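Forwarding the complex inputs:
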Amino acid sequence: MDRRIRKTRKAIFEAFIQLLSEKDFAGITVGEIIERADVGRTTFYAHFETKDFLLKELCEELFCHIFDAVSKEKPAHNHIFECDSSDAVFLHLLKHLHKNDNNILKLLSSTNNELISGYFKENLKQLVASQTELLELKKSEKIPDSFRINHIASVFVETVRWWVDNGMKEAPETIAEYFYLSV
Amino acid sequence: MDRRIRKTRKAIFEAFIQLLSEKDFAGITVGEIIERADVGRTTFYAHFETKDFLLKELCEELFCHIFDAVSKEKPAHNHIFECDSSDAVFLHLLKHLHKNDNNILKLLSSTNNELISGYFKENLKQLVASQTELLELKKSEKIPDSFRINHIASVFVETVRWWVDNGMKEAPETIAEYFYLSV
DNA sequence: ATATTAGCGAACACTGTGTTCGTTATCATA
DNA sequence: TATGATAACGAACACAGTGTTCGCTAATAT
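Prediction (whole assembly, four chains):
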């Protein structure tokens, strides 16, 4: 891939993340993005159809990255969906979020736009659906699977959001415990 | 209050609700609202500072209405916060939502803007905080109260959202059961 | 070395926002 | 029912943001 393309995409994403950590998605203009990214207006629209598509692509990149990273931290298995313990999967996810090597956390705060947590939740649902152990937990009841999956993913998102909003004082292990006690 | 004021407010709210049931908040323009409401542009801005304030006022009105209605359905108690059973409170809320006499449900769907569920959740948090019985349920654990309150309110919102998205086929009693089993 | 293509900036039409102003119609109330 | 107050009106406005076009320049892959 052309180096110029990589450079502009990176510049735009970084400017966008920076702006998202300062204000709502709705309040961010293309003008602000290209000013921070220091790229031309034409260039922006050559890369992204609209601001919404930029958000979509950013989320895809961020969540791909984090879910990939989590799966690679467990080298015994070649894919996250093959993890033997639900416990380990969600704790790993929390630990990875705790490191915050990408700026994902800033974006998950409740003051920020819900769109991002929406993307996060969609990714989580897939993960949850594969965690049969977790789903079995309250299987005895007559709750439908789709309800359980949505429920567990929502609770995880809300757990992380609470964590971030309260300054992330707790250790990932503590949050994982809260999550397992709640779900 | 001047009849003209009441009439325009009503017309604007109704047009706005109708539009919200069709498309995202972000995609709705003031021009569309005033066209449907059949009021002048000047009039709109005389009533509402911006589109965001309109949403805020609508939510306040809707949620005030529903929480009031729920409290009045239990005439033995003069205020919802004095209900003796958590069970009854949430079931009443679900029953009232099921009737859908105001168009609240359309707005809570996941396809619609998250802003509205946000307002709903804020109202619920107050209610949850007063449901000491419910909070005591898993009190033995070392989970902070603020976590529990946020958790329970979130689960309720997500429960309703799941219900709406799946066509509300279940009875309020069934949904209440799902909720109590999950929370 | 050169053909290709990304990026540039200026200009553009277009849509939506929020305001101003003078006029008309409706209201509360005396 | 007369009257002063005020809500609603439409037209016009400045302004900001969107997304596109065009001709030119500079970086890149081969």
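DSSP finds ten helices and no strands in chain A.
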